[in-house]
Design brief:
globular; about 35% helix
């Protein structure tokens, strides 16, 4: 159980830009600020949390809320009351929900999720830019990328790049295009730095970006799954978790990051509790703290307890949205006798509106390869979803994967939308003139002049507009049949 109750809070709006949430003017974190969050200028760009009057706040574990535990064993192993199945559906809900081992839409019709993830939009990983480093841990996530760009371009130049990149990678027209392809879901990766610079301190402009994207998708009938791809402190050791030093500080320093993370999820859930265009919440992307094995040094109970605590915090403000939970081992189950299962120890299910999200990359497309997920679905009575997949270089792999999963009623989410000079996605972004100079620099080589760095990066951002990209027609045909 958390040592302090969660606060209910209100947000005071401030004038700021979404791209102002990066590191400070010195371009990186200090030695006593490993995640870089304190480098952010809170006084200039943050919204502030104000406690509500006495009696207005409500501890999510308060038994007076009338919510009882589910009948699953260990449902209250963190000391929180977990919402019952009856409570979860007591009021009308016309959004996506769990029904047995399937998802159904507002009309009660079964829905197989078909979509993409757009990690390159607001949580860039260097490989998406064609910058492949020798190790993914820490690799170069958005924080390290921003620090390097600020060094080469200056803070104003780096801010201008990110603003242009974010304005071009995904627009309302892109969402309309997705709808024409037949997409019904999109996974939106979120970096916590865009939303919160410190516990209880929120950045309204970051939420406004999410609001606008949800509105675009709602107009086209596409569910948005909010994905905390980079949690406070980092939920894994690699660039996708935006770890600047290869350490998953969320787990290694829980006194600093645990309550912050839970409160952030409650804040997100409170904001979107009534929004039916939000399909659900993907709580963590690929959580672990041991890079060599993708597991937890303290055991799987660390993750399960955190999941149950987050569930309780969300259910205190949002009874309806589907909660997606990923496993260890990069959220996968290795096929074959004795294979590693990233979901061992997470069952039984503890919420009626929860599902398991697994990731499937480049393995065999056979029933044997997915048997572990089928067994997980059966044994827990909850749906499974392939929340991240693709990026394969083998023609036909994605088509075979989709056919296999859909034959078993399992949805999928291709990763990603656009990358620089790469065919394993829907659009290829053209590298600008002299791009090799920036590639060399970002890999640790010579830094180009400020003028060159600014010209190259701003050209790259301009090239990210869909009209300037190359559509990978074969990829689109394979995935969506268009």
């Amino acid at each position: 159980m958390m040592s302090q109750p969660l606060r209910t809070s209100i947000v005071i709006l401030g004038a700021l830009t979404f791209t102002a949430c990066g590191s400070g003017a010195d371009g990186g974190a200090s030695s006593d600020d490993v995640d870089g969050s304190r480098a952010h200028d809170a006084s200039a760009t943050d919204t502030r949390v104000v406690d509500e009057p006495d009696g207005a706040s409500k501890d999510s574990s308060d038994p007076s809320d009338g919510k009882g535990a589910t009948d699953a064993t260990d449902a209250t192993d963190a000391g929180f009351d977990v919402i019952s199945s009856a409570d979860a559906i007591a009021s009308p809900w016309s959004g996506l929900r769990v029904s047995g081992t399937t998802f159904v839409d507002g009309s009660g019709k079964e829905l197989i999720p078909r979509g993409i993830g757009i990690g390159e939009w607001h949580n860039i990983e260097s490989y998406m830019l064609g910058v492949d480093l020798s190790s993914d841990s820490p690799g170069m996530g958005e924080t390290r990328l921003r620090a390097a760009l600020e060094k080469a371009m200056g803070k104003a130049g780096a801010d201008a790049f990110f603003a242009s990149w974010e304005a071009n990678v995904v627009t309302e027209d892109d969402v309309a295009l997705w709808a024409s392809w037949g997409m019904n879901t999109v996974r939106l990766p979120i970096n916590y730095r865009a939303l919160s610079s410190a516990p209880g301190v929120y950045i309204e402009a970051g939420f406004v970006v999410i609001d606008r994207f949800i509105a675009w998708c709602k107009a086209k009938g596409i569910y948005v799954i909010l994905d905390l791809h980079a949690a406070p402190g980092g939920q894994n050791c690699e660039e996708m978790g935006d770890s600047p030093d290869g350490v998953a500080h969320l787990w290694k320093d829980p006194a600093t990051y645990r309550a912050w993370t839970i409160e952030l999820w409650q804040t997100l859930a409170k904001r979107y509790a009534a929004e039916t265009a939000v399909g659900g919440y993907d709580i963590f992307d690929e959580p672990y703290d041991i890079e060599s094995s993708g597991t937890f040094s303290s055991g799987i109970s660390t993750l399960r307890t955190m999941y149950v605590d987050i569930t309780a915090a969300i259910r205190a403000v949002d009874a309806h949205h589907v909660l997606f939970f990923e496993g260890t081992n990069w959220s996968s189950i290795d096929a074959g006798k004795g294979g590693t299962s990233g979901f061992d120890g997470l069952a039984p299910a503890w919420d009626p509106q929860m599902a398991w999200a697994f990731h499937k990359y480049w393995d065999d497309n056979t029933v044997a390869a997915i048997q572990g997920y089928l067994d997980l679905r059966t044994s827990t009575g909850r749906p499974v979803w392939n929340g991240e997949t693709g990026e394969d270089q083998k023609t036909g792999w994605s088509a075979a994967m989709i056919a296999l999963l859909e034959s078993h009623g399992i949805g999928w989410n291709e990763w990603t939308y656009k990358k620089v000079e790469n065919a394993a996605n829907f659009y290829s972004i053209h590298a600008p003139t002299n791009w090799s100079k920036m590639q060399t620099y970002l890999k640790g080589g010579a830094m180009p002049s400020s003028a060159d760095a600014n010209a190259i990066m701003m050209s790259l951002a301009a090239n990210a507009a869909t009209a300037k990209c190359t559509l990978q027609s074969a990829w689109l045909k394979e995935v969506f049949g268009k």
